[in-house]
Design a protein that fits this description.
Elements: H1 9-25, H2 29-49, H3 58-70, H4 75-94, H5 121-130, H6 136-151, H7 155-160, E1 166-167, E2 172-176, E3 182-186, H8 189-202, H9 226-239, H10 248-261, H11 266-273, H12 278-281, H13 283-299
Antiparallel strand pairs: 1-2, 2-3
Helix pairs in contact: 1-2, 1-4, 2-4, 6-8, 6-10, 10-13
Length: about 300
Amino acid sequence: MPTTPDPSDGWQRALALHEDDLVTRGAAEKTRRAYASDLDALARWCTGQGIEPEQASGRHLRRYAASLSAEGLAPASTARKLAAIRSLYRSLREHRIVPANPADLLSAPKKPQSLPKVLTSEQMSALLDRIPSSTPLELRDRALFELAYASGLRAEELVSLPVAGVDFDREQVRVEGKGAKTRFVPVGETALAAVNRWLERGRPALRPAADEPALFVSKSGRRLSTSDVRRRLRTWARQAALQGGVSPHALRHSFATHLLDGGADLRAIQELLGHSSISTTQVYTRVESARLKTAYARAHPRA
């Protein structure tokens, strides 16, 4: 097996510059790690070809993209890697290291149009009502998933939410979303009551450190991780006999879809979810359309 060369000095400088720019832009740590991994692979490939960052052309990058496809990489993974390359060359152009972005004309592979998993309101009730409120961990889980569904928060936003981020008087939470963007999201009475029970009876029993700001903590008193959230949700989904694997993002999708069902404006849903583009939110209109078509096919005698 041929060895892959380490990135050249020029590539290492380019990657460090891009990393600094991502930090300045407020990119999430998860995004920075993914881009770093994707661009390290590009840098190694180019170094092996004798291509420095400022020498790479659209033709070179198309050859690299073709090599990814030849490895059998999924379209979604390839698209993410190409997005990382565009981001890198955007930085290099801004710093006048290259005159133009050679990745602008790269076409991403078409991803299959899959609709997000959405639970019905009955399934959501079965899931949430299955979680008792006896032990501290049960109180935490009930508050955690009531809040996830009531406000459509991402798993990362749930675990980073501080106690001070919950405003009981205004019935809302202050969320630091992607790109360090702050938004205020309403919270319903049921979720607020669950959070209040957790703060009064559950969180103190787990004895978090006095300087631990996180609203939701583990049994050892430390801030939860997103993997903790996914694991606990899978546990309760099995208890509620829900099929197909339920993720925290499914609760977020259900939040948005149920708002749309109830007549909420798409722009309002966009703001609540923290989407920077309305096109991202429009996926929920496809969910609603698919649901209506299914109902029509099942109910109409001439369908």
